[in-house]
Write a structure and sequence with these properties.
five-stranded antiparallel beta sheet; disordered N terminus; 187 residues
């Protein structure tokens, strides 16, 4: 996703019709548009490096160069600032709803890079590693969240012998890139 607020202002010479986005000359899927924000999916075969994003709308057009990286992992944060982490029972992970040791936790992320289709799922091809308080976690799945273009999910197992804690540091590494750390609660 790319926010229009980072781009140069639109010129006022557009034609009527829906908003269209091209990245490196290829059409991008537009997911949603809001005042000062446009959500779209970078086409999967876009090469890494500087690429031009061209936006055309009834209000005008604009072009901006952006840097495409093979991976650029980040864990989504909710409006409260808490990570988008869901316990196996479906509750949002928080000090009031900690993860159960021995069960899975799902992180909603971005920037895992290229995926490969296997069965009904799109798996990330880059190596995905996670640690909780420095201890390696088992990655059950890392890839696109089914039915949500551009949204990745990572399913991790919290070891049964993990000490409990309400602010445990979780770190995520994809290939040679690290996401900013988050805290999760474990009972």
């Amino acid at each position: 996703n790319w926010q229009m607020s980072r781009m140069k202002p639109l010129s006022r010479t557009g034609s009527a019709g829906p908003t269209q986005v091209e990245v490196a000359g290829a059409a991008a899927q537009v997911l949603a548009g809001f005042p000062f924000q446009l959500n779209f999916v970078i086409p999967p075969n876009t090469p890494a490096g500087p690429q031009t994003v061209q936006i055309s709308s009834p209000y005008g057009s604009s072009a901006q160069t952006i840097e495409i990286r093979p991976v650029s992992p980040a864990i989504f944060l909710l409006s409260s600032g808490a990570p988008a982490a869901v316990n196996q029972n479906g509750a949002l992970n928080s000090p009031d709803a900690p993860a159960t040791r021995g069960q899975a936790i799902t992180l909603y992320t971005t920037g895992l890079g290229v995926v490969q289709r296997r069965g009904n799922l799109d798996f990330a091809t880059a190596a995905v590693e996670a640690t909780l308080e420095g201890r390696a976690l088992t990655v059950q799945f890392a890839g696109l969240a089914p039915g949500f273009p551009g949204l990745y999910q990572i399913n991790l197992i919290i070891p049964a012998d993990t000490p409990p804690g309400l602010t445990q540091e979780l770190r995520l590494r994809v290939a040679e890139s690290s996401a900013p750390p988050i805290t999760v609660a474990v009972q």
